[in-house]
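Re: that chain you flagged

S.,

Sorry for the slow reply, it's been a week of failed gels. I finally had a moment to sit down with the sequence you sent. For the record, here it is as I used it:
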Amino acid sequence: MKTFNLTSNSSNQTMDIAKSLAKYLSNSDVIVLTGELGSGKTKFTEGFLSYFGLENEISSPTFNIVNEYLAPQNNIYHFDVYRLSDTDEFYAIGGEEYFEKGICLIEWGELIEEALPFEYIQISFEKDLSQEDTRLLQFQAFGTKYETILDNFNNDIKYILTKGGI
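Prediction finished late last night. Pasting the structure tokens below so you have them in one place:
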């Protein structure tokens, strides 16, 4: 499993990091977003959607479980599974059927870990308690496909960050 860390110094930078990752993904890719409330998961999703021209579409799926966004090349499914009582509820709504239909972003995905596909990317968000706007992001690749994607993304994002920011 490949792992690397990034530091985001603002919500705009978190959104830019998401845009940079989005260009490597396509239908049937799954991204799991973990971290406490207010740690940047929804901002990340906002940036991700903006890559596909959907920046004005985002709304938190807190009460709907899943929001569907239709882009010209990819459908994007944004899940918030925080309110599910167990994995059976995810199966009951047909959650796993979305995995092949488009790109899935799953907030609180660790709560349905046994329902996740074998391969995916997990991004853990953590607040930096010494700096209010800073977030620590840990990227983990589960599966060879996502190891390659994260290698390419990591090289790209390091280059962008060393050139003065995104």
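What I noticed first: Strands lie at 2-8, 30-34, 66-70, 75-80, 103-107, 120-127, 135-142.

Talk soon,
D.
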